[in-house]
Design brief:
single chain, 7-stranded antiparallel sheet, 4-stranded antiparallel sheet, about 30% strand
């Protein structure tokens, strides 16, 4: 009986250690707060974040809020990577002077009752820089009219990034890989 209890304690300890290591270095779960990423994510959604993926343009990322003294995290979409120039003109995104299709916003743009869904701007208008600096990213929420993103908080330093959203766990009706 003593051997069996010891065996169970060892198994539970190993499982707990693996859980802690995976959560610390490989993945974590995060809850979405607010509506800045609607319609992609909504308040209360739960996502899995990979801490090992490289970050690319259009990735959905979770990062430590640079403007918060609390341990607040934001979830946003990467619009610009180091070296990119960014412009929004007539509700069309241009990266490095090339138009970029934002399929994830088509429905929202059609619903926009105030004209354009995203105001016209250049990177320099909001950041004073013409290109995204090395080691930083320019991010925006999918709900552009209300999102607190790089247009307000500036560039996101690479070391503030927790990871890339790779899976949506909740609600179960949206279970799967986000777009």
């Amino acid at each position: 009986m003593k051997k069996e209890i010891l065996s169970w304690v060892k198994a539970i300890a190993i499982a707990f250690l693996l859980y802690v290591l995976c959560r610390q270095f490989i993945f974590t779960a995060k809850t979405v707060f607010g509506e800045s990423m609607a319609p992609t994510f909504h308040n209360g959604d739960i996502v899995i974040v990979s801490k090992i993926n490289q970050i690319h343009r259009s990735d959905l990322i979770v990062f430590n809020a640079p403007d918060s003294e609390l341990e607040e995290v934001y979830i946003k979409r990467v619009i610009g990577v180091p070296g990119d120039s960014i412009e929004m003109k007539d509700d069309r995104l241009y990266i490095n002077n090339e138009p970029v299709s934002e399929e994830y916003l088509i429905e929202e743009k059609q619903k926009a009752s105030l004209g354009y869904f995203t105001e016209d701007f250049t990177l320099k208008d909001y950041t004073g820089k013409s290109k995204v600096p090395k080691g930083h990213f320019f991010v925006m929420g999918d709900n552009r009219p209300i999102s607190k993103d790089s247009r307000i908080i500036g560039f996101i330093p690479e070391d503030h990034i927790i990871g890339e959203v790779v899976f949506q766990m909740y609600p179960f009706s949206d279970l799967g890989t986000p777009k």
